[in-house]
Batch of 2 targets.
Target 1
Amino acid sequence: MRVIIAGAGIGGLSAALSLHAAGIGAIVFDSAASLRPLGVGINLMPHAVRELTELGLGAELEATGIPTAEMAHFDRHGNRIWGFASGRNIGYRWPQYSIHRGELQMILLAAARGRLGPDAVRTGTAFASFAESPAGVRVRVRDRATGTTSVLRGDVLVGADGLYSGVRAQLHPGEPPPRWGGIMMWRGMTEGAPFLTGRTVAVSGTNAALKFVAYPVSRPAERRGRALINWVAEALRPAGPTDRADWNRSGRVEDVLPWFADWKFGWLDVPALITGAPRILEYPMVDRDPLPSWGSGGSSGPGRVTLLGDAAHPMYPIGANGGSQAVVDARVLAWSLARAATPAEGLAAYEAARRETVNAIVLACRDMPADRLLAMVSTRAPDGFGRIEEVLSAAELAAFDQAYRATTLPDVAALNSRPSLTP
Ligand SMILES: Cc1cc2nc3c(=O)[nH]c(=O)nc-3n(C[C@H](O)[C@H](O)[C@H](O)COP(=O)(O)OP(=O)(O)OC[C@H]3O[C@@H](n4cnc5c(N)ncnc54)[C@H](O)[C@@H]3O)c2cc1C
């Protein structure tokens, strides 16, 4: 079987590696002229770290990312509201990593080229269209340098081509543009002194007004006694973006700094982080409505095409799960194809295992139940507080804990005991 993957992001490269590990041939193409370590930090949750570890990448992750110790919430004055132990600290057999998205992509790319061959990942090649039949799938691609088109032939096409997926657009013509949730995000990375545990994801404020998220992402910096601090500043804005969301669009310090100018906590200087970043990126918090199907199986076609990662289920980064769910998709896809008698049967099993599960995460991230409790704190104690128990009841604090876990994490025992997805 030969699988063609459109998109060499976190999901597409994880799919190539997973298919290879399952004994299935794969090639990947990406529209970018070259794959560079773009983006800032992301969190890889234990369920994704498990999969990448089973793909033999545990040592690379450990050398690069920060094993997150805790996720802690604060009000906009830096007073601690609630914290959750993370990764191994909460009993998972695998850590959670805070890691530079581009470095993660480069780890996956090097492994894919090393294992599948130097030509397995082709750049400068954009998806144009597909045609499928019971015999196979033909994928028309365009060389971005010359404008010429050519056809790739395979048994399966996986659309891992991100938020503006062309594969998704062909499967679901007429879909509206991504849906904006009212929040603009500015992101950057600034070197500074380690804060709190040195491995804390710190979330201050609330999406009902302003929120600032900061966490260290670099083990090499940590070894030098420093922290490469990834930060995300989020502000509720009245007017939405006027053009396409672009992960690589530059933002301006004057657009973000005024909102956070007095956010100086004893343990973190937010204005210094914003002004100290070599580059600021601006991105609107967007997602898409969950899809009723990811492919063309059943009565609607031969079932040789599917979607994966952001192409299938873009979600708000609020649950720290976009990259992680793409990795899990990849592993389930390979496992399903390896066990099926036909490509269509494999893709149907993949979709059955993943679509509703991930759609629920998309909707949970929209609902932001934990954020409602943060907003409650800012309403009840706008000028700060001494003890959180004076602001939230024991039942409300327990609800916070539950809301966070339900949005973001699988059950510890279930993940620890589930059989491997290596076929
Ligand atoms: C440049 C970039 C920077 C990002 N930075 C961040 C970040 O800082 N923080 C964060 O939380 N998330 C970031 N993301 C998104 C994040 O990687 C995803 O939400 C998540 O990892 C799921 O990965 P994915 O592989 O599904 O999608 P993506 O990582 O978005 O990968 C999609 C890939 O498809 C390629 N592609 C798009 N259109 C076509 C086409 N027509 N033909 C062929 N290939 C195509 C893209 O070049 C890209 O490599 C970034 C994405 C990109 C592309």
Target 2
Amino acid sequence: MSVSSNNQSSDPRTPPASVDVVVVGAGFSGMYLLHRLRGMNLSAVVFEAGTDVGGTWYWNRYPGARVDVESLAYSYSFSEELEQEYEWEERYPTQPEILRYAQHVADRFDLRRDIYFRTRVTAAAYDEDEATWTVRTEHGDAVTARFFVMATGCLSASKLPEIPGLSRYRGATYHTAHWPHEGVDFTGMRVGIIGTGSSGVQSIPVIAEQAADLTVFQRTPAYSLPARNRKLRPDEIAEMKANYRAFRQAQRESGFGLPTPIPTKSALEVSEEERNAVYEQAWEAGSLVAILTAYTDLTTSQEANDTAKAFVHRKIHEIVKDPQTAQDLCPDYPLGTKRPCLDTNYYETYNRDNVHLVNLRRTPIVEITERGVRCSDREYEFDAIVYATGFDAMTGALTNVDIRGKDGLSIKEAWHAGPRTYLGIASAGFPNLFMITGPGSPSVLSNMIVSIEQHVDWVLDAIDHLGRNGLKAMEPTLEAQDAWVDHVNEIASYTLYPKANSWCMGANVPGKPRVFMPYAGGVGEYRKKCDEVAARGYEGFVLS
Ligand SMILES: Cc1cc2nc3c(=O)[nH]c(=O)nc-3n(C[C@H](O)[C@H](O)[C@H](O)COP(=O)(O)OP(=O)(O)OC[C@H]3O[C@@H](n4cnc5c(N)ncnc54)[C@H](O)[C@@H]3O)c2cc1C
């Protein structure tokens, strides 16, 4: 498989043998952690597998990659100077623009000198007597630290499909999450793309413009709304900059990390005409939250959700000329229960003569062959195959590291029936290990920069609390953890989220336990709970 230009030698520096905090990952989480740790005069190293900062936006360089939260909202709030000086160009920036932002932050706060790039962390073990973690890297280095923070991202452990014959294929293959830094020119090629989640929806229209022929293999269709992306206007940038403090506060108190009007009506208490006018407005606005928060009950009532689902189905049928293709593109699960997408010309792309949709529910893939993809009815030949097959989400990057807590307890074993955390931040048996946006926190159901900043601040306040009170370690009790896991499940059970076979449920990874992993109670509510835990002297944790 062609991957990014990341096969360079390891970081030439040797990390220190001992620091206060080891951080894994130099995406937005790890970068902010490092900045704050320096402010607390704690020594830290950050280990990062990639060659530069940016995390998601370093790896996912596939054509069309964009954020689907607006730039002025998908940005750090911790520095007013940064907020004021940074100039975003687009409403929904492309991957290069977000990567530039991450690089600017790294330069501005001089972060790189404590980040060891090209360095994958492979193992970490807790020494109970010393109350320290020893963290090991792929290059054989070992660093001992009091605190160990996994800032490894919810969507960073990429996933290939489990199809027989993957290695047999003779043409070029690409995974959207490991896109070559130098780009790929598909001109004149017959291309197959497997997967129609966010990465597929974003890349398909762009690849279709280049390739001679593009065949899309779809198992589960995505809901997608037009992004209506555009350059930001100077007046809207100025207005946001003048009001940033109030906006950030509203983000923190909101449901999704994005301030939106709070719905007051059920979708079922208004006329069909009124409802469709509201959905139409959301469709025109190019905003996912606008449709998801249009009514009080879209995430909780199947009947209410069906009205939004019918609206999107109608749109798909209006746009896509071939009725069978349109039908195949219509999702059968409730809107919003798998991550919906924002696109640029996604459905329109299926009207192109060089684009073909294969519905894998009718003709499943049997194997990858030397020449291409064999489905149950025929073989397709390609010059290149793109795997837009996503991630082992939320837990993959955590369990990929051999993390051993007290008594050698492995996190993989502790989580064999699904992740078990307290607040999505810590796990019983693993003292002084913290996770940023871990399973059991709002994470992927939110504007993640808001959730990242909240977790980093909470974790560092906890570390500070230990230091000021002469304490060495903290660890959740099993009771507090069990109660939190029950609470996360209970909240999910009030919603329609578990009804979709989504990566939030672990459904894209064969053998992974089906558990709805994020906390669906909303960013604002969640923050209150975390703050209450801290205010009560870290209730639910054993401090020693
Ligand atoms: C295609 C795509 C689109 C997205 N769009 C949005 C969006 O619109 N809105 C939104 O809020 N969020 C979005 N996200 C989620 C996005 O991941 C977060 O917004 C945010 O960038 C996560 O930052 P992070 O630092 O927590 O994790 P990441 O950015 O994933 O960074 C984690 C880093 O840890 C490193 N790492 C992992 N394991 C190891 C190891 N063992 N050793 C060393 N290094 C390791 C990885 O290399 C990576 O660089 C998107 C994600 C993807 C993949």
